[in-house]
Design goal:
Length: 361
């Protein structure tokens, strides 16, 4: 029996090590690539992580049963920090202090000018790996904090540059009276994470610039090779266009990579509200029929993120071009086929064109 138990324990240990070893290593490079990889959102992360936040919220707000300004309704969400420390004869105000493995994935402030110098310490080292004015870090003044990865827009200052760490991360500022959010990931125990260094930032400068270029011009995400369908539509009130059925023959895992729609005519705001887009995947139905349970049902404007009305904007996942073409780059996997249709629930005729692209997944 003791020998059998020992053998079982050894096998379990080897199995655990094999699973652990199979996890992908998190690096500055892998996080940069992930920033513009919408396809990565269709898989469970490996290694797994939870996303958390340190912020300047009023920490007096603790008990929803105590409805006072001193407790639940406390709203002094500025100038809050974990503690103050002395370093080289000066005060540093600790905003974040957590164990690894993990990665900072967003840093926001409404008034970084009041924060002074930000310092980021990794893996319990005495010297900070990053030391600069917070306005420079969040304002995108230069490598690796380049625009629009780091940028001030609409009175908000943001940096999305990933800062991975293996063992520990501490963030301080030289002044405390400001608003901030620090969003970070904590990876599962045993995950291998390569900590950020200046050398890695220089080594992967091209990846930083590629991410910056993609954020500036999301059309770079449009599939370069694909199959799909396109056409014009003219939908009377109470009628529908479609379903458009796409798939691979023979059936194999694929994904919708791009959907574009452009409406014509007047009263577009109303038509964007009363025209529904429906998308279904892999349902077994008679030829030409539409599945009874579509996975996507949304007003056309809401689906493309432009409601109310047609508003020009650009983002990685969706947007509206200057000519009114609405695009969606969300990756939607399917096993055999995908169905799309438009339904006119309004009292006006809806005209336009659409295009759908799919590719292997």
């Amino acid at each position: 029996m003791p020998v059998r138990i020992a053998k079982t324990a050894t096998l379990l240990a080897l199995a655990f090590l094999a699973v652990t070893a199979a996890h992908a290593k998190v690096t500055f490079k892998s996080l940069l690539e992930e920033m513009t990889d919408l396809g990565a959102l269709t898989y469970f992360p490996d290694p797994a992580y939870t996303t958390k936040q340190f912020s300047s919220y009023d920490q007096h707000s603790t008990d929803p049963k105590v409805l006072t300004d001193e407790n639940w309704f406390a709203n002094g969400d500025r100038g809050q920090y974990l503690r103050a420390e002395d370093r080289n004869g000066a005060k540093e105000y600790v905003l974040m202090d957590t164990g690894g493995p993990g990665a900072i994935v967003r840093f926001w402030s409404a008034n970084p000018v009041d924060a002074g110098i930000v310092r980021i310490y990794l893996d319990n080292k005495e010297e900070p790996i990053i030391e600069m004015a917070l306005t420079d870090m969040l304002g995108g003044v230069g490598m690796p904090f380049v625009k629009p990865i780091a940028i001030e827009l609409s009175k908000g200052w943001n940096s999305y540059l990933p800062i991975p760490y293996s063992k520990h991360c501490k963030v301080t500022t030289s002044k405390p009276d400001f608003y901030y959010h620090i969003n970070y990931r904590t990876y599962e125990k045993g995950a291998k994470v390569e900590s950020y260094t200046d050398q890695l930032a220089k080594k992967h400068e091209s990846l930083v610039r590629n991410a910056s270029a993609t954020f500036t011009d999301p059309s770079l995400l449009a599939p370069q090779y694909s199959r799909g369908g396109s056409g014009d539509f003219q939908i009377l009130p109470g009628h529908e266009h479609g379903p458009l059925q796409l798939g691979n023959n023979p059936a194999s895992p694929s994904a919708v990579r791009e959907i574009t729609v452009k409406l014509s005519g007047e009263n577009l705001e109303q038509k964007l509200r009363t025209t529904l887009i429906e998308i279904a995947f892999d349902d077994i139905t008679p030829p030409g029929a539409f599945p009874n349970t579509p996975s996507v049902v949304a007003p056309l404007g809401d689906f493309f993120g432009t409601a109310p009305g047609l508003n020009e904007y650009r983002s990685l996942s969706s947007g509206v071009m200057a000519d009114g073409t609405m695009y969606c780059y969300w990756v939607m996997p399917f096993q055999r086929r995908v169905f799309l249709r438009l339904r006119n629930l309004g009292d006006q005729e809806v005209k336009g064109s659409w295009n759908v692209k799919i590719s292997p997944h």
